[in-house]
Amino acid sequence: MASPPRPERAPLGRFRKILFAVAVIAGLLVLVALAGEMILSATGARFDIAVEQAAFRDYHARAGATQQGRDPDTRQTFPIVFNQFGLRDATSRRDAPASDRVPVLVLGDSFVENLGLPWDRGFVAQLERAMRATDSRVEVISGGLGGIGTDREFDLLRELAPSVKPRLVILLWFNNDLWDITVGLHMKRSPPRWLQRSYLFQFLTDRLSRLTGGDVPQEKHRLLYAPFFTDGERDPLIVHALDRTGALLAQMNDYCRGHDAQFAVVAAPNAISFSPITTRAAYAETAAALGRKLTDFRPGLPYYLLAQAAAARRIAVYPFLFIDFERALAGLPPQTEETRRRLFFVNDPHWNANGCRIAAQAVARWLATR
């Protein structure tokens, strides 16, 4: 007797099994991702590839807030106030400059943001006081965000200019901006803020950059230290970063001219670029790789390279702050702790209050002659 034919399996049943398998795989991937996030978080991992993006994307959330700052040497705390733009200020509200004022917008990274100092002792406040000695109408506005480079500073200019309406825009440029631009090139688009904060995302982005030909730590090492020993002609990475910087400066200059503002660049040293004492091992390694000695360190070289890139585009650059700093040392050798205390924090490469004062006065004198 023939057995009855087996009924065909319903397509819906197969679909449910497939859906269940997909759900299980997705769940396992989520668990693996959470485990990776917890491990990287517990180890305190930090990857430069995402820091610059996060710095730019997060500042809006600070609008109107008040936080506590800390002196990196004395560990004393002081209040930090953010205006409606999410930028450090003397007050939580930055009103539009009156018609009789001369607004000056200063763009930059943590040096302009005033890291480690109360507001009235930082560069922006001291620059305003120095400029008011010759023009009492000057009102200096901070456009500083720690961790950003020239590309993000251009973005910040376009965000602030319609409200601030500056007559003059000053960009403070540091040699580490060559690296910050490279970070921006590695990440063509800004991912969502919640994703930028993920340790796992930063780790995977760093790995992907290496697989596609970019060794992030090696590139950072070359861009931070090599320009002090070589003019960069033999290193395509340095040449590319300088060309990219020059192009961005030209775009910022054109934008300012289109909005009735002048544009100026100040090439400024931090402690790491002023003297090799801070990171002696890294500088010695770089010098050896280039066939040079540590005594071949030339503190002004990256700034002359920037000045050349900007001069070709007819952009005003003040590249001599390191010379002003050397004069302020009154003959002290640059490779001493006493030198560092005169201009920089001992435990941090940023300017202290005296360094901010010297820089502000030098910039004010230069602007008065233009």
Q: Number of helical runs?
A: 16
Shape: globular
State the total count of DSSP E strands. 8
Largest sheet: 5 strands, parallel
CATH domain topology: Rossmann fold
CATH architecture: 3-Layer(aba) Sandwich
Look at the helices and sheets and give the structural class.
alpha/beta
Strand order of the largest sheet: 5-4-6-7-8
H and E order = HHEEEEHHEHEHHHHHEHHHEHHH
CATH homologous superfamily caption: SGNH hydrolase
End-to-end separation: 109 Å
Name of the top-level CATH class: Alpha Beta
Q: Beta-strand level of the residues, as a percent range? A: 5-15%
The amount of helix comes to: 40-55%
Mean pLDDT: 80
Tally the structural domains: 1
Low-confidence stretches: 48-54, 185-190
- Estimated radius of gyration: 25 Å
Write the layout of secondary structure elements.
Elements (H helix, E strand, L loop, with lengths): L10 H32 L5 H11 L7 E5 L6 E6 L5 E2 L12 E7 L1 H4 L9 H10 L5 E7 L5 H15 L3 E6 L3 H10 L6 H4 L2 H13 L4 H10 L10 H23 L3 E6 L3 H4 L5 H10 L11 H11 L4 E3 L2 H8 L8 H7 L9 H16 L2
Parallel strand pairs: 4-5, 4-6, 6-7, 7-8
Antiparallel strand pairs: 1-2, 2-3
Description:
With 370 residues, this protein is of the alpha/beta class. The protein has one domain (46-368): Rossmann fold (3-Layer(aba) Sandwich), CATH 3.40.50. It has helices spanning 11-42, 48-58, 110-113, 123-132, 150-164, 177-186, 193-196, 199-211, 216-225, 236-258, 271-274, 280-289, 301-311, 321-328, 337-343, 353-368; strands at residues 66-70, 77-82, 88-89, 102-108, 138-144, 168-173, 262-267, 316-318. The chain has a five-stranded parallel β-sheet, sandwiched between helices. Strands 1-2-3 form a three-stranded antiparallel β-sheet, with no helix packed on it.
